[in-house]
Amino acid sequence: MLIRIGLVVILVICNAFSLGCNGSHEPDSLVYIVAIGFDKAKEPGKIEVSFQIAVPRTGSSSEGGGGETKKNAIVITIEAVTLAEAYNLLDSAISYTPTLSHTKILVFSEELAREGLQDVMGPIMRFRQYRGSMHVAIVKGTAADFFKNNQPAFDITLSKYYETMLESYQESAYYLDSSLHTFYMGLKSPSGQAYATLVAVNPTTGNGAPADSKVPEGKAETYIAGDMPRQGGNKAEFMGTAIFRGDKMVGVLDNDETRMLSMLLGAFDKGFVSVVDPLEPKRSVNAFLGLEQGPSIKTHIGNGIPYIQVQIKLEGEITAIPSGIQYEREEYLSLLEEQFSQVITERLEKMLQHTQAVGSDVVSFGFYFRPYFLTRLEFNEFNWNDRYSEAQIEVHVKTNLRRYGLMMKTSPIQGK
Amino acid sequence: MKHYHPPNMGIMSGVSLVFIGTAPRVFLHQSTEQLSINGEAAWLGVLMNSLCSLIMMLIVLFLINKLGGDFLSVCNKLVGKRVSWIIQLFYSLIFLISAALLLRDYVESTKLSALHDANYQLITLVYGFTVMIAAYLRIEAIARAGCFVLPFILVGSILVTILLYPFYQIYQLLPLLGNGFKPLLISGFRGAGYNLLALLIVILAPSYQNVRTMKVCFLWGLGGSAALKLLYMLVFLLTFGVEVGMEKILPFFEMARLVFVNHYLQRIEAPFIIIWVMFGMLAIALSLYIAVYLARHILNLTILRPLIPLLSVLTIAISMLPENFDQVTKYEGLLLNAEAIGIYLIPLMLLVAYFIKGKDEKCSSE
Amino acid sequence: MDNKLITKIISFFKKLILYQEPALPDRFVLQENDCDAKALDSGFPQQITQTLEELNTLLRYAYRLEHHLETVVATLRQGKRVDPQIIQEYQSLQKQQRENEPLQLGYYDNSHISKDYPVSASLKENAIVLSKLYHLPQNTGIVMRPFTIPETPSLKAMLVYMEGLSDKKYITTVVLKPLMTIQSQKSTSSDDAIERIMKENIPNGKTKKTSNFRDIQQGINSGSVILFLEGFTEAIQVDTKGWEHRNVDRPVFEQTVRGPQVAFGEVLAVNTSLIRSLCRSSDLMSEEFLLGSRSQLTAVVMYIESIANPSLVAEVKRRIKSIQTDFLVDSDVLQQMIGDHPNSPFPTTASTERPDHVASNLSEGRIAILMDGSPFVLVAPITFFSLMHSPEDYSMQTPYSSFIRVLRWICIIIALMLPAVFLSISTFHQEAIPTDLALAISVARDQVPFPTFIEILLLDMAFELLREAGLRIPGILGPTIGIVGGIILGQAIVAAKIVSPIVIIVIATTGLTSFVIPDYRLSAAIRLMRFLLTTLAAILGLVGVSVGLLILLLVLCNMKSYGIPYMAPLAPKTITGLDVVIGGPAYRQERRPDVLQAKDVTRQPHISRGWIEEPPEGSDQS
Fold it and tell me: Domain residues for C139?
């Protein structure tokens, strides 16, 4: 009897250990792909997939002495028909086993996006290594280029670069982060469309190319990624949003329009806004604004035309008054608030016109029309995505400047 | 026939047993199925399921209150020995096949989510072995282990739902009726079969002191599992919506993967594996144990234990029968139909028999 | 002649050149005990020696009788009055005759002496029996001192005791002196002489009469002194235990910062007295049992009669009484004989060396089992949760002690699961680690040749090795070995790239947390389970860990400790009384633990602090 039990135990143990390691990998036999880029290949029907692979080193202090080139990551570009094939081909190029479990961002080139992402994005959620918390970005130019030029200015690992970059959008709302989950939901949703972060490589020569969506009385220039006039720092730049209709990219929102989009989405936390000084048009006033509460959106349908009313409340503090006029006082303050509200209303209307022109409802107004229908069938017949262009949208903005920073009033500068 | 008296169990064990028996499918693809049938009204469907099953259980409890004994003796008294034997056989087969399909589901989920490259048969064997040990240690051990594990499961599940708060979009719950009223009614009634295993309380009635205890077990157990399922359905709808939700095979896994609070608290689906594996093993073991218990009555045996390795090997074999996942879904649909018969037809039949015959029976409260 | 010469020469050269073994005697080899073969045909020679002994006894009796008869004849011839001594001799001869009639004289083995062999009326017979039983004169240590009690007529007596076990001074004071200076005038030939001597002349608390050699042997072996009197078939046993033993000392394993610092010793009487000093109730019962057929040690079961469940007490006593074994030396061995699950590594009784722990457990309705010679007292029945209680919890304030208890529970989970969870996450589920940490682990494991599983096993074994070695190192070498161990394990093994530093952190944390567990056996069980869980984690990752954890939980929930479920009060839900994990303040401990089914459930009334309800003195409220 004992022999039998012993035999069974030995058989079980042999079974358990001899069937392979069941998918376990030693942590040092893996290499982590941090970013994947997709470009259109020269041959039709093929794509070029670029993998940015993190080099194992410990954060900011690398072991084993520093050379001049402390490589953060290496970039490998492979041409293949599908992503899966490229992933397998990658095995032949590097000695480690690649894994996608730590991928932070998927970057598509603009060319590929304008043609349609159905082939790539449609099936992406099936493979278990993709997760909804990856981010999606569209790059002006090619992704391979972008990866090569992406050298973080500080000595951090690339994964940390991406993570912190895509979390610090809240400071200015000049670009939004779009996770794969949000993008995918936008793709498949009948109530709205998808949007993605716009990235590009900035030549850092100091010459900029402003976008043309400036409104009168708005003092700041508007840019999209890659066109900001600056010198120095990492060449990679995140600014603006790419908007989609279906799976095709149809337009680009510059940084200001992105900020408006974030207001409508309820994600505008803080940011500096400049307007022309109402009493001295040569100078500008600067305020630090944020949303007071989420936007209140009311809808109704009249004669088959959808009507939308948006109420946005902003609040903030004044940060700069170069002209020295005492806007802190009640009577001047309402003037200033009125100026801010007007500028932002105009900008919002301009942005909404832009999206309506291309028929892309990135704000997902369709959700607010759902209470009017009792079953999904009726709502699908309503076909919001096609109706978006004919919707009538009114925007009301109310700005409250509650604080004035550290100064109560400005004393004039003497002896000029 | 020597009667095997199950051990004495209290309210807490009863509640945990009912919870284990009815809730584990929430971690599998049951939510997706209900989404495709009902659309946005899936949570209403879940609510209807639980209510219907609760009503049926209370009907059975009423019969036991009047006639005394446990479910099997009530059947014997009301419809005679032969028909009662057929009923027992029916239930035993349902529970056995339910255990096998649940095992298959869990192995598939594991292979999809946790152990992608592992050998399928190894996972099945390991799970089957655990289930066999759990059933071998009898229902006391399962109930107590369930008592122990229950708070952690609840806390873990609720934690996931809370951490997903940034992704909620409240308008995903509208339009209210989803795909319409008719699919809602049909799936609401039919889905009560998911909770058939709650019948174990009345099958094991001698271990509960009186009918009041059993009623409390039903209310809290079914109510708790209903609350959990409702919460999951709601959160699944709120985060994913119908179009994307219909695509997912593993709702809980997807929800756990989506959690992203900041770049330190993300990708945390690994620790939740412990929760759903333990829960699933206990559920399969419970289903198997009840099947063995009924089989013992059917075959008129004196002891229970030697049947357990036998039937667990049978369970493992049945679980490997379907060839692909589509067949698994089809068989689960058939099983649900059978369970619906088991939970509606048979108690109603007993109720009718009671009203016809019951006036002549002398009431005994033992 | 040539042969002889050549042989001589050859042998001479042989002796010169060849190696000669030194002429030592053969080594001792323990021959196989063929007592099995012996048992078959042992009847024959045994019977001869039996008969021989019977003949010898009869012969001795005959010689004595002859001598007595000669004395009687001589006295009668001389015409003297019959001496009372002669009458006494006659009576003892009578009694001896009565003994010789049922001839049950199998003396060859000790075991053939019937245990109920009665005390003989003749001192000489008794002496012979004793020397057979104790293999005298080879076996030194037994002292047989014959003396005379100076009564009228003088009574011959013999004192038998074991030298090391009895207190010599005490014997002299209590037995020898009073008897040798006896002033009584009553005759010693009456039958109640023994009673009289016992009652009037021996100033000792524990005295009793014995009439068979089983009790006499037991008495001598445990330090009593036996007084044989000529002509009486009963002997007097006086309890004079007094061997050298360790004093009451501080506890070795269960040291606390606050609270009493007394620990049990090896003497049973001292241990029971320590418990009784803390629990001065008339209801505190202590019942004795003799265990071990050759070692004959005493076990004592203590419980409070008005609290403990009678069926529980009966069950414990039944189990102890039914043990049949040769040698039973330690209370832990006793625990293995009467415990419910001897094959499981988890203990079903608590084993403690502090009297206050035992006393508080007794007051909850539990039973204490003490064993002579063992400084650890068993407390039964217990639950898993009470193994995690430390006596210090009651001395500290409640918030702090609750916090420490929660910390202990977190530590036990870490001790059980940390290597397994680390292994499964770093090899199967790398996505759960932040990317920077994953890259750092990659770098740390850069040149390590072993897989993580082997590293963990290696270090775990090394830690166990250190711990075991630490138990046996003489105190002088202790710090040296500690330094060497620390340097080897800590520094050199990492510098040589045999293991990576992260695994060292994991194993060190695990080892440290396993010492937080108050019960030593429980921490040993947890260490054992940790190996199994780590192996499962290496095969199947977190799925393996959860499967192993579930099986462990099921086995624990299935265990029973003397009739109560092991995982009460969480598993079958019973009313707990605020003492399971989070402790409550003392005034709220109103109920005893429900699971023990005590006779009297409430400990203190709902308002146990009377001063709360009444107003303080001198205030306005009446």
Answer: 45-238
> Looking at the structure, do residues C82 and C118 belong to the same domain, yes or no?
yes
DSSP A214: P
- Domain check: are C405 and C436 in the same one? yes
Same structural domain, C92 and C217: yes
Q: How far apart are CA A121 and CA C398, in angstroms?
A: 58
Interface confidence, given as ipTM, is 0.92
Q: Which residues contact C533 (CB under 8 A, 6 or more apart)?
A: C416, C417, C419, C420, C544, C545, C548, C549, C552
User: What are the pLDDT digits (tens) for A394-412?
Assistant: 999 999 988 888 888 888 8
Give pLDDT < 50 ranges for chain C.
Answer: 36-42, 104-112, 622
- pLDDT tens, B336-359? 999 998 899 988 998 898 888 866
For the beta carbon of residue B156, count every other beta carbon within 10 angstroms.
16
* Structure tokens belonging to residue B62: 């009423």
- Which chain C residues have a beta carbon less than 8 Å from that of B274? 542, 545-546, 549
Can you tell me the distance from the alpha carbon of C532 to that of C542, in angstroms, rounded to the nearest whole number? 13
Q: Which residue has the higher pLDDT, B13 or A63?
A: B13
CA distance B77 to B84: 9
Give me the domains of chain B, ranges plus CATH numbers: 11-352 (1.20.1740.10)
- pLDDT one-digit tens code per residue, A116-127: 888 887 677 787
Nearest residue to A410 (alpha-carbon basis) of A347, A352, A312, A326: A326
Please state, in angstroms and rounded to a whole number, the distance separating the CA atoms of residues A389 and C68: 142
The pLDDT value recorded for residue B204 is 82
A63 interaction partners in chain C (CB closer than 8 Å): 443
Give the predicted TM-score (pTM) of the model: 0.85
Report which secondary-structure segment, H or E, holds B107.
Answer: helix B71-113
CB C416 within 8 A of CB C529: yes
User: Which residues of A, range 172-191, sit inside 8 Å of B by Cβ?
Assistant: 179, 181, 184-185, 188-191
Residues C372, C418 share a domain: no
Q: Are residues C234 and C284 in the same domain?
A: no
Section B129-143 average pLDDT: 90
User: Is the same domain home to C198 and C107?
Assistant: yes
* Among candidate residues B159, B123, B101, the one with its CA nearest the CA of residue B283: B101
Boundary residue ending a domain (C565, C600, C615): C565
- Residues from chain A that touch B180, judged by Cβ atoms under 8 A, are 375, 377
Are C165 and C288 members of one domain?
A: no
CA B187 to chain CA centroid, Å, is 17
Q: What is the largest CA-CA distance in chain B?
A: 71
Read off the tokens for C564.
Answer: 């109560």
Answer yes or no: is C250 within a domain.
Answer: no
The predicted pLDDT at position C104 comes to 47
DSSP tag of C227: E
- State the first-to-last Cα distance of chain B, in angstroms, to the nearest integer: 18
Look at A370 and B171 and tell me if their CB atoms are within 8 Å: yes
**Number of residues in chain B:** 366
Nearest neighbour of A132 by CB, restricted to B40, B242, B258 = B258
- C584 located within any domain: no
- A69 — pLDDT class (breaks 50, 70, 90): very low
Which chain A residue is nearest to residue B113, measuring alpha carbons? A128
Residue C16 in any domain: the answer is no
- Reported for C163-170, long-range contacts at CB under 8 A and 24+ positions apart, including other chains, are C164/C243, C165/C221, C165/C222, C165/C223, C165/C241, C165/C242, C165/C243, C166/C223, C166/C224, C166/C225, C166/C240, C166/C241, C166/C242, C166/C243, C167/C223, C167/C240, C167/C241, C167/C242, C170/C240, C170/C242
At A66, the pLDDT band (50, 70, 90 cuts) reads very low
Number of domains present in the structure of chain C: 3
Predicted local distance difference test score (pLDDT) of residue B87: 92
Say what the pLDDT of residue A62 is. Answer: 46
Of C101, C250, C97, C238, the C-alpha closest to C161 is C238
For residue C603, being part of any structural domain is answered with no
